[in-house]
Predict the structure.
Amino acid sequence: MTPSDDSGEPNGGQALVAEFVLGLLDSAEHARVGRLIENDQKLRAERDFWQARFGALNSGYEDVPVPAHLINTIEARVFGTPAKTRVNIWDNLLVWRGLAAGALAVAVVAVGINVLTPKPDTAALATQLVAALSEDGSNVKFVALYDSSTGKVRLTSLSGEAVPEHDFELWAIQGGNNPVSMGVVPVNARSEVVVSPDILKGWGEGSVLAITLEAKGGSADGNPHGPIVAKGPVTQI
Amino acid sequence: MVMQTPTQDIADLISRCALRDRAAFRSLYERTSAKLFGVTLRILKDRSEAEEAIQEVYVKIWQRADRYVAGGYSPISWLVAVARNHALDILRARRPVADDIDVALEIPDAGPDPERAAENSDERSRIDFCLGQLDGDKAEAVKGAYLDGYSYEELAEKYSVPLNTMRTWLRRSLLKLRECLTA
């Protein structure tokens, strides 16, 4: 069914989803079409198609700084009155499971852009490891998530500032062995580190990840010299 | 070691908002609020209304962050859609309700390719190319509907054509656009 070129009125129904996405329908029609879309997989795909295509025009929106005072109002509305007891995110296993599932979902979305998305392997979740890296007296905090299906540790820096002329270096400590370097890691960014075969031999619950402050470029001789700014044991989730 | 892209950073911040991480919300706000304020301001065309709207938008983002993970949009597109839809809801509530008969929804035969749901520079040049296939006024009208949230009435006035002519124009243009985008 291709639209006839210029003969007569095109069937309104065929453009309805696009009109919905553009916001051209009146309130009653918008609500009606919205309900139909929610209940029909094909219509949802059609909506997502238009949303994504028109989304390519988003660069037409210019940045306009928001007045500085608004963030306080927004946070008050979002969080309610300041919480008296702050939930300790480090101790909450559900949070870690959610984080892992979220990370997996984000990874799947990223993959889905170019290739057929593989179904998320639920077994992969079972072999994920997590470590929260922190140290008293230091504001450097990282989260490390290991996924056995990729063999990589994904590191997210939660707080901490870069130190001039220095780099942070990640180490794996296993049993009584010397720490093994996993390379220099950035702060204020996320990164991925491949777990080398050496480390993989003893890898699992009981392994400890640590971050030290080393000279620019990392330790030259493969041993840590700087202070430990964050560390944490690896836990299965 | 591979550095993550800004897109993945934003996606990560949204995921952490779903986990009720307040620091992540603040970072997300700092990195995206200027863009989203640009959206609400352009559509609402009134500074105090846009300021009120941007507050609602971030409340919604916090409340709906868990839905992002399940979706297929690029994270910034998802955020822009939340802001844009909120601003359009405000406008729509003020506009008159037409006395239309319910039109049945139909989808043209060539279905969209769900694997190409992401927005990137290719998509930008693709939609620019396809808009370029329409007459100049019609391409501008489609863009105006998307970026400025113009209604049929506003578009009809802008291009000095009767309302029904504008509807026919635009619907026909959307079908042509769809043909080109799915080609």
About this structure: The mean pLDDT of chain B is 86. The first strand of chain B starts at residue 2 and ends at 3. The radius of gyration of chain B is 18 Å. Chain B has two domains: 6-94, 115-182.
